[in-house]
Amino acid sequence: MNLMVFGAPGAGKGTQAKFLIEKYGIPQISTGDILRAAIADKTAMGMEAKKFMDEGKLVPDSTIIGIIKDRLAQDDCKNGFILDGFPRTLPQAEALRDLMNDMNISLDKVISLNVPDSLIVGRITGRRVCPDCGASFHVEFNPSKVEDICDYCGGKLMVRKDDNAETVKSRLGAYHEQTAPLIAFYKDMGVMVELDGTKDVGEVTKDMFKAIG
Ligand code: ADP
Ligand code: ADP
Ligand code: ZN
Fold first, then answer.
1. How many domains is the chain built from?
2. Quick check: is 172 in a domain?
3. 125 found inside a domain
4. 53 lines ligand 2 (CB under 6 A)
5. Residues 144-179: pLDDT tens digits?
């Protein structure tokens, strides 16, 4: 099963991807998590990407496409994968299409989580993430069982550097300008499923599983 979760920053992609991992036993490929790991390791790629991320801008396509090529070639992707936060531009979507064609595989479903901008700021400023496994929680809407501790791995939750009201504006701008046009791209491919991402986490999960079938 080759899946993609799609939507604005803070729409709930990472949260729902965790439930897909549990159900299908396939890995989540989050370009944001991969970039943050590169920053933590202080690699040259990470240091370059950090400048864009701190400003809420998209990292250049060539960097991102390189990351995905390497990642999809790894063994654990053989039975499928969940793309989260990739692609975010038309050139990225075209590169993915070509890469998957070369691999003789295709996308089964693109799950779009639709959430209006007015709800995004509150989601992002209340987000707490696990630096160890990438899980995300919300202080009010989706709290961890123990305060500041990850439910999945026991890691200590933190606030992401780019999760502030200032950066959210440019990230939403980038989403509408560069990423939202992909909705039409995937509708044309016949794989797009649009869900109401404003419902509770559990309701969205139910709708998602129903849509995947
Ligand atoms: P994305 O991966 O799309 O950026 P996340 O999955 O990290 O988004 O979710 C953003 C924030 O919103 C997190 O704090 C998360 O706990 C919270 N959240 C996710 N889904 C919902 C939902 N359906 N309702 C309310 N809050 C949600
Ligand atoms: P969110 O879902 O909250 O936007 P992500 O973790 O997916 O968070 O992304 C964080 C940042 O990493 C983005 O603002 C962007 O700078 C960079 N990034 C992640 N994925 C991509 C991508 N596919 N293309 C370009 N930049 C990306
Ligand atoms: Zn964790």
1. 1
2. no
3. no
4. yes
5. 999 999 999 999 999 999 999 999 999 999 999 999
